[in-house]
Structures
1.
Amino acid sequence: MTEPRNPGTDTRDIDHIESEKHGEPQAEILDATGELGEVKGRSLWADARMRFFRNKAAVFSLGVLGLVMLFAFFGGFLAQYDPAQVDFSLMGANAYRGVPSIETGHYFGTDVDGRDLYARTVIGTRISLLVGIVGALVAVIVGTLYGATAGYVGGRTDQIMMRIVDVLMSIPFMFVLILMLVIFGRSILMLFIGIGLISWLDMARIARGQTLSIKNKEFVEAAVATGVSSWRIILRHVVPNLLGIVIVYATLLVPGMIIFESFISYLGLGIQEPMTSLGALINLGTAQMNNGTLWMLLFPLAFFLVLLFALFFVGDGLRDALDPKDR
Amino acid sequence: MAMTDTQTAPARPQADGAPVLTVRDLAVTFETPDGAVEAVRGVDFELRPGECLGIVGESGSGKSQSALAAMGLLARNGTATGRIDFLGNDMLAASDRELLKIRGNDMSMIFQDPLTSLTPQLRIGQQMREVLEIHRKLPRKEADRICIEWLEKVRIPEAERRLRQYPHELSGGMRQRVMIAMAMLCGPRLLFADEPTTALDVTVQAQVLDLMDDLKRDTGTAIALITHDMGVVARMCDRIIVMRHGRVVEAGTAEEIFGNPQHDYTKILLDAVPRIDKVKRSGKGEIDIDAGRGEEPLLKVRDLNVHFDVRMRGGLFGTTRKLRAVDGVSFDLRRGETLGVVGESGCGKSTLARGVLNLIPPTGGTVAWLGRNIAGSDRQQMKALRKDLQIVFQDPLASLDPRMTIGASIAEPLQVHTPEMRGAERAAKVREMLNRVGLDPAMINRYPHELSGGQNQRVGIARAVITRPKLVICDEAVSALDVSVQAQVVDLLIELQKTMGLTMMFISHDLSVVREVSHRVMVLYLGRVVELAGRDAIYTDARHPYTKALIAAVPVPDPERERARERVRLSGDLPSPLDTRAPLRFLKSVVKDDPVAEQYRPKLVEVAPEHFVAEHDPGLGSEGLRA
């Protein structure tokens, strides 16, 4: 209650009473109040942004993340070779002719099939990012709405909805996904569907938990007392107040998804040639580790690690910035 | 009990000893992202043994920060300058180790919220022993003995058993007494009490205040009482300093401050305090006492019940017991009238409000709105009615969506009830409403956390009245506000009632405020009406012992009157509402001694026109009444 707060807003009420009770304001005992012009309010989002930008590691990581994204989406223009083009002249001579060099145009060297590793890393990074972002997006949209609805409606609906989540969660998804990829064939679409199917489950639980506490806040009761419909309360009052935690979780989910996809690809499932992902590239790289072509492993691995670190730090920064306890 | 001492002994023992604590030119500054905030700017005061110093001020006046600085407990981003001398120790220069030795030993503190200042995972005994183990290095047995001794001194029954209980097993008043016992364990020379009774009910507050007064007298401990409640100050304090914006605006003895305040701010503060012993609102702030007289009631509530099933342990699947939160409440409301509803926490007043509005569906009885029963209506039917039935909540900040601008919050009822209205038209209405509740229309884009409590409550009121409702229920609408702000919000409510012809139910635990705004007052005890009367009758001619005790427990901001008042005391806390014997506390002669039995229901007797009193046994300064 006696936390430091803006002294300007505080005194206003008293000034008000003065002018009413004593006819004219007794300016000498009243401190000047804060300026109250037509102000664009500083929302909680603005506050959070400010806190985020004070976190050096997070801002730096955001920059790195931006660079990686630029690389993934526009790096292809700098490539001298098509990612699918196999240079047969390099076959078997990779260790000394496919070495990374600016001169040959193979900036990152070539892979075991003589394809340009730079172009392939660009594509791999792009696919990995897409998988992560799509997974997180599905999680955010489906999971949040599902969880918020279950939590807000409560009762039997909640029980049924959450038991469905429990059942889905108890299925070993890695196994199901591998089966799906085997049965329906390996395609990016299948991978997206598979990842989309699991990613929202945790989010739904988190959103529901948060909704349960938001639901009992007075402002929700105020909305009910006003006659606002349930669906509107969920969309207007519950979901915006969930977003803080949802965003944090989503940013931490992206790297999780990337790792998941990499694992699938590393197993040899997942992305179909000639497309590739960081996981698949790392897989190929490890296979050639003993042949003196270490760059095949190191370049994709470096991008993988940098990407994950950047995402984790950004997620961390967001969590600190949006944590309501800090307010 | 304690009252007789107070009357005979003038409240100024050894006030001339050497000061325990001397504070000189204390300043506290907080570094925040928005720049430095000067919470305290040059404060001087001193405390002598056996003295109670009242530090009075509204939120943000720096009163708590001064105390925290004196204890070396400032938040990390705060720095204190000046000099604080405690028994020869310079508290600002002392190292953390020295502070640890002093804190809890020679100097201790009681915090406002007894619910959060005890660690929930530790038993009472463990927490209390910890203090003695650290400061006295006492063996466990010895420590236990002292703990029990102190718990008994703060009048906690069955002290030994309490040591093995967890904090949540005790009531709020009980916990605050444990806090006091803990603070007193090492026999401190100085006790800081930061709003020690603000979170407690009036009857419990009276008990805790008596206790602190006794302790001060018996042990010679100096008490610094930090509070915004002028009534509490009048009861407890020998000397008072009034703080505002981090400065002391006035200092003096209690008699000087209350009898002859010098500074304008002190006058405003005293002026704003509602008094239970008289209604002193002058001119425009007065309610229209004749509103709605003789008209057909707008709202007729008959035998309203709200029961909850509570799961209890026992049996294979547990058993359920009925919690009768509201149990057979009947009343009428006429147009333009305000019905005050008072009672202590847990008496069902908020549940009553929600039952009337159908926010919690009543389990029985009727709520007739304009002659039509709305109890049990479904959501669709209620939606149309919500335009006329509105509610203002207790916590101004919590009742506004933190992610919405106040303009959007106020506009929401319009969006729901007049969806055909255009955006610009709506914005214009919101601006007009802001103006009407005394806020700058330029604040339309502000967010709730940027406004003060009083401003937020104005927003809450604006939202409630923007659809021009007929009935507004104020659920503790001014309880969380500072006194001066409270006075303005009450003014606003009365003015809106007069201009818009609002009918109100004003729910509060603060009997003084209720007296100012209400035409009639209804006193609830554990879900039942014990007395219902006109606003003056209930204060001057209270018949029911519970009403008497409630009124007597409210401190009056006038030291002389306060010390001379006779008291009707309730001892102990509210009993469990699950026990069906509990509501018959004042009619013990018919009680069946079985906690689950169906009990006799006391009838309301009309003792004078419009003055209803529940049946009760003689006692507590009241003669009995039977139908």
2.
Amino acid sequence: MYNLQGVKELYDRICLKSDLDAYRQLFQLMENPLIAFIRALVGAEEVAEELYSDLFVKIWARRHALPLTAHPRNYIYTMARNLALDHLKKERHLQSIEFNEINTLLVQDQAPTPEEQVISKEMVRKIEGAINVLPARCRLIFKMVKEDGFKHKEVAALLGISVNTVEVQMSIALKKVAASVKFKTLV
Amino acid sequence: MNGPESIFYKLLLKKISGTLTEEEKWLLADLLKAYPAFSEAYETVQWLWNEAEVTSLERPREQSNKLLEQHLQRLQDEGLLPEGEEVPVPGTAGRVKKRRYYLLGAGMLLTICLAAWWLLQRQTGEIFIQEERYPNMVMTRPGSRTKLILPDGSTVWLNASSKLTYGDDFLEKERRVQLDGEAFFDVVKNEGKPFIINTAIMDVKVLGTSLNVRAYAGDKKAEAVLVKGKIDIQVKRRPQEHYLLSAYEKLSVAADPDIHPKKQLTISNVEVVGKDSVIAETAWVDNELVFTGEPLGELAGRMERWFDLRIKVRGERLQHFKMTGAFKDESPEEALKAISLITGCRYQLKDHAAVLYDE
């Protein structure tokens, strides 16, 4: 899950105090999820890295003019989304987003001891498998909701789709996950 | 799709997002009662949401560090970093400069840290061993040079636009550093732990000696000059061959692997200049840029780093004009004037960019 409080603190330190150390930390804190997000939009990892660097150049260059929002993460993601769309328009003359594959998602039982685990390792693997074969757009939406903790409304705004679409895609994901372990009752 | 299944998943989604109303709660309970088949799906999704963690495969640590480093370099190149700000790098870097000031207090602190580390390690077993090792890094900007002492006591002078990194396991089995750029090493003798310098083109292995290594990415050649002792050099392109160098010998390797074999690799004696036995290759350590019979085209590259200038040399004649001399306290302007006097060319200097040209 995202450390939202951490993002907010670092963002404020950058904007108010030009804190380079906070900037470095934010760069590393957001790198994994945000590059995954950009890559889902633009396709190639190298391009995503470049755009990520562009994004952070912007953040630093405009640090005095950035809005002191309560949800800096959404603001930063929106900036990233716009950079990705600009890139797509320029490079491929695309007007709409196509969704590309994202990295494999790993599922782990958080139960501290084996005795407390209510579900077998085998089933965890099946669930993980089901998640990773979801269609690209569905998997991205699932990741943003479950791993990154975005609200449906926020995902819809970032991806330029309706809240209804987000919810339909989420339902599909949940249905596939549930179906992957259904065999249990048959055995 | 508006069957009971679709209503069930809509409600389930609301449940896990925490937006289920009181009325919907009852509806969901009724559905689960009416359709026992849904209860398994309900439990699986509940588990996934509350008991499980979903994480993306992380990007490799080296890739992350490299990205941050390149990014900070870019900020600096674009003039966005405040004046006097060192390029901060992940790991212990950025702290390297401070380390020198605190050297006196460091001994005691290190003892304490080591004791704490030992205690912790005893308790937690192998956890510490598995931990990522962050590289230590020192970088210099164009026009600046620095001196540092490595954990083994060896001294390194780092010339302009250079980067030296070493892992936290430096000193464990061997003493290994990575160099991009130019550095003069005064290596403390330690037979049991060879000192190894990795560069893009070659690896230099030493036991205890003074030597200069120049291996800038993008330069036409890489060089190693030995002042005293013995070193063993392995050129990456020719892994089965080793070159042993003695004092005052220089090995020079062309960066371009497609160049004529005879010109690829040369070993020569370095010229000792003047009565103080100054070697052109290592004079920079004493803040002197010395060159003997060096084509202006190559010298210009060294001058760029030395003075933090961009220098263009126009025309074949000037490119190959062999220069001998030294700069010590000269300003860029004075150095360019000297070159123009010697070669009979003209020069222009404006905003850190110079052009040398024939009329």
